[in-house]
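ok trying again, last paste got cut off:
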Amino acid sequence: MNLDLQGRRALVAGASQGIGEACARQLAEQGAEVLLLARSGDRLAAIVESLPNDGGRQHRVVAVDAADRVAVVSALQLELKQGGAVHIWVNNTGGPAPGPAHTADPDAYLQAFSQHLVTAQAILGLLLPGMREARYGRILNVLSTSVKQPIPNLGVSNSIRAAMANWAKTLATELGPDGITVNNVLPGLTRTPRLHGLIKHLAAGSGRSEQQVVDGMLASIPARRFAEPAEFAAAVGFLAAPTGAYINGINLPVDGGSTASL
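nice, full thing came through this time. structure:
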């Protein structure tokens, strides 16, 4: 099984913690040179220092707010000029705040659409030339199982994630002839700061204790536990490698079996 990513360069967004950090570590372990993007420059620098860098690899940091599209595009243009093409893009961004769909402010939808889909489209335009030239591209969108089954109390997120999923499926058809695959990897309940925040929000809004919220969540997962970020990253590593060359345009849940649909 060929999981070797030597000679490949990967961009991992949201890489300062949780799933993003785990994905950066996984790809580096497989031999990729990794470009880590997030707001926290200090945290990213510490992660870079801990990544394997044999073979002359130079992992790099892009400390920028993913919500600032102009800043993201400017920073990535410089990185592509200095470090070369990116072949693997882990498109991982924090989801919108929880809450019902019907009470959400219209601007919340507008902001989320701009931050997620519009910014992703801008990044795509920067990365495509290098992927096409190499005849090797892996675009991996970290979305949510809500694209298969909407999650209660995540109204804005459910809507935007679905839009991202269909964007990706369209790209998979368009870019497949260029040796570029586009897939969505859907995390279930994973031990991340976002999960901790969701637990607190649900507890505060329901009058239940945080432990009661946790127990309810675990009861909905056949595996009866939360995922570890490294388990999600292993799926990303497989799809990013040559092993994933013929897997294109799919939604892959990594959720312990909790999604009710196939």
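cool. The chain is about 45% helix and 15% strand. The CA atoms of residues 221 and 258 lie 5 Å apart.
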